[in-house]
Design goal:
alpha/beta; Glutaredoxin
């Protein structure tokens, strides 16, 4: 049996944990502007139109009927640049079958074009919207942290999301999904 003081301490700890969890959830929601719906796991991806690096409009629905790994990145983001070789290797492995990696640059096109000229990747790069609500926020990155990756199924439903650099084992498990 717990003593009265231990019971009080335990109850206080449970209340503190509950309040902490609520505050964490509320702080995430605070980043989402009023009227903006950020998608979550299980939701369908929004059919956004984004420009490619040459200014041509592209819709995310163009990649329908395939699994899609959306990777949000920027030229100034060191972890983003560190994961690009693994993403390029994954795209090369699948080629035009099953999976496609789509990079979404959350950066100025004037920085992205020369970067890609010096460091080409074998997957399409689209330009994300930086203004609120940003493209990454709309795809579930409520904290707007880069890198951010989202895995979509062939029907455009969100299967998984990863804030921060995509660990090799997570990438591998995403690639193995049917």
């Amino acid at each position: 049996m717990l003593s009265r003081s231990n019971t009080f301490i335990l109850a206080l700890a449970v209340v503190a944990a509950g309040v902490g969890g609520w505050l964490q959830h509320a702080s995430r929601q605070a980043h989402v502007p009023a009227g903006v719906q950020a998608v979550t796991i299980g939701d369908g991806r929004p059919n956004l139109t984004l420009m490619d690096v040459h200014g041509k409009p592209r819709q995310l629905s163009e990649f329908h009927a395939r699994r899609v790994l959306l990777n949000f990145w920027a030229t100034w983001c060191v972890p983003c640049l560190q994961e690009m070789p693994a993403l390029a290797k994954a795209q090369a492995k699948f080629g035009e079958k099953e999976l496609i990696v789509v990079g979404i640059a959350m950066d100025d096109p004037e920085r992205v074009r020369p970067f890609l000229a010096a460091h080409p990747v074998p997957y399409p790069i689209l330009m994300g919207r930086l203004e609120s609500p940003s493209t990454s926020l709309q795809l579930g990155d409520e904290a707007e942290v880069l890198p951010f990756s989202v895995l979509l199924d062939a029907d455009g439903r969100i299967l998984a999301a990863q804030r921060g650099q995509l660990p090799a084992e997570t990438l591998e498990s995403w690639l193995k999904q049917p």
